[in-house]
Design a protein that fits this description.
D-Maltodextrin-Binding Protein, domain 2; two-stranded antiparallel ribbon; single chain; Arc Repressor Mutant, subunit A; alpha/beta; elongated
Length: 298
């Protein structure tokens, strides 16, 4: 079957009628009927029978549709990638970051960059790690910004900075020493982070290895929610330096003893160089990331 025949068959089978297929494909009904007839002629069997004025798929059509549907999805993905590649060649930077970067760091960098390069257009998203990787492989985004990413085929990882986890406590909280140990937190209500993301896994492993006997009063998937709870006196937490340094209600920030470090990385497609504008922005972003966490480097 030719590609056009696959499209028409998929549309007729999905909509259940020539009229519906024509509407889906934005073509005339006679055009759909003609392509479908040619497909049946080449295949040597009917795909649809007309029974009481309705199109009914034949057994052969049912078996064929599973394979056609897979091909159709691949073709649709190919078209999406082709459109995305065209957009990547313009003066547009498409960047996705995990939510921790979206509150302060990324908006600050984009605004600073636009002051010097006002002709640049940005498309910004906040996504979780897996969604960022999918976006890169689909050429939907140019740059990803995240913490300690897992390796993935086809994606290049560019370390930007190394920073530390820190303890956040309500204003006025006092600890017995300048660097806080896990056992110093045992007497405090503790706000934990979900272990689904890279930082959550690092922190969970650290807490388990330290045999920390913590009084967990809340578990948050979003680091800024944990920060907000601390600012309102709900307890203490351990978060990344980006969240700690972001703007928001005041909290006390304390270093951990022993320290616990993580990497801040940029991701991009491995098999093709970044555009000039994307590379220039990434260099600026790297400078801002290092400055942003300079008080919490590992």
């Amino acid at each position: 079957m030719r590609l056009r025949q696959i499209e028409v068959f998929h549309a007729v089978y999905s909509s259940g009628s020539i009229t519906g297929a024509a509407a889906l494909l934005h073509v005339s009904q006679p055009s759909v009927s003609k392509v479908l007839a040619h497909a049946e002629q080449q295949l040597g069997y009917r795909l649809f029978d007309r029974i009481k004025g309705k199109l009914v798929a034949t057994p052969e059509a049912h078996r064929l549709f599973g394979h056609v549907s897979s091909v159709y999805k691949n073709v649709d993905e190919l078209r999406r990638v082709a459109r995305n590649l065209r957009a990547s060649d313009s003066g547009t930077v498409r960047i996705a970051a995990t939510p921790a970067f979206g509150t302060d760091l990324l908006p600050t960098t984009v605004a600073r960059y636009l002051e010097r390069h006002p002709d640049t257009v940005f498309e910004l998203e906040t996504l979780h790690h897996n969604a960022i990787q999918r976006g890169l492989l689909q050429s939907r985004i140019d740059i990803g910004l995240c913490f300690d990413p897992d390796e993935a085929p086809g994606i290049a990882v560019e370390p930007l900075a190394r920073a530390q986890f820190v303890v956040l406590a309500p204003p006025g909280t006092r600890f017995p020493r300048k660097r806080v140990r896990l056992k110093d937190l045992a007497s405090q209500p503790f706000i934990a982070l979900h272990s689904r993301g890279p930082l959550g896994r690092i922190l969970t492993t650290h807490l388990e290895s330290g045999n920390a006997d913590l009084n967990i009063v809340a578990v948050s998937e979003t680091y800024h929610v944990a920060r907000g709870l601390v600012a309102r006196g709900a307890g203490v937490t351990i978060v990344d330096a980006v969240t700690a340094a972001s703007s928001g209600p005041d909290v006390g920030i304390w270093p951990l003893n022993p320290g616990l470090a993580f990497d801040i990385c940029a991701l991009h497609f491995a098999d093709a160089p970044l555009s000039v504008v994307s590379r220039r922005f990434l260099d600026t972003l790297g400078e801002d990331v290092r400055e942003f966490v300079s008080d919490y480097v590992g």
